[in-house]
Design a protein that fits this description.
mainly alpha, single chain
Length: about 350
Amino acid sequence: MNNTQSSPFVSSTNSVSRVMLLVILALFPGIIAHIYFFGWGLMINMIIAINVAVASEVLMLKLRQRPILPFLADGSAVLTAMLLAISIPSMAPWWLIFLGTAFAIIIAKQLYGGLGYNPFNPAMVGYAMLLIAFPREMTTWLPPTGEALSFTELLNYSLFEILPAGQSLDSISMATPLDIVKTQTALELSLTEIGQQFQHVSGAVAGQGWEWVNMMFLVGGLFLMAKRTISWHIPVAFLSSLFICSLLYQLSDPAAHASPLFHLFSGATMLGAFFIATDPITASTTVRGKLIFGAGIGALIFIIRTWGGYPDAIAFAVLLMNTAVPTIDYYTQPRVFGHKDD
């Protein structure tokens, strides 16, 4: 005999820790591709970021007189650290990762009350702070051409900012394909001319290396959708909006505007669509709201990439739409069952 006396009668197998674990697992295809094309710097970033995130979480929980193990076990601090580490260039000094991660956990998460109370995505808050405060360090990327430094050389640079003899930071680093297209089209070069002068910009559909990293994050995102860890609404609306905006402008001037596939598979697009914008705490919660939220992010990314001051725009687009979530949810609440219009 069923002793259940009241609803709900359907139990969920999802828990915060299980969701976080699945998201972390889904990141690994993209992480492996990133390391393959851009070297071991990402691994160093993640080791530093995870340790700083855990230490910051413990410190704040102690100061707030909250139990430590239950909050650490949910995995949210580790996931925040990993997302931020992926977003930071692999040629990042340790103090940059330390500052960004501590800022994300302490300021953007714990000072708002911890998981479930933060209105902004913590990883993107940390990233935006670093990009505004340290633009040079945040735009120093290694080329995806097999010339990446060894693990030891990257570790020496991360800890002591020491490069191998005869090498300078400018000689081994490069701008991203998004940055190159943005700056060179501003100088009135056509996309064909840019592709001829900067070989790594013209991969199969986007920049060399970047297109494969984005493809692997797409694979991880589809895994999360198949496991029902995230719904399709935000990623589909996000990518569709970015695709439509970039297609319309490319059709209007093909020489000056990159293709939709270039926008979709460059920068952090797929990471943003499936792993950042879908954060259940800071995203919209209604069905229509998720579509509006995702479409707004996609449109803002294209606007900032095309006319703004930053080549990639995931963090700023997500944070701007985070501010709109309360309003979106308020106006997209589903009709109450049994409601009758006056």
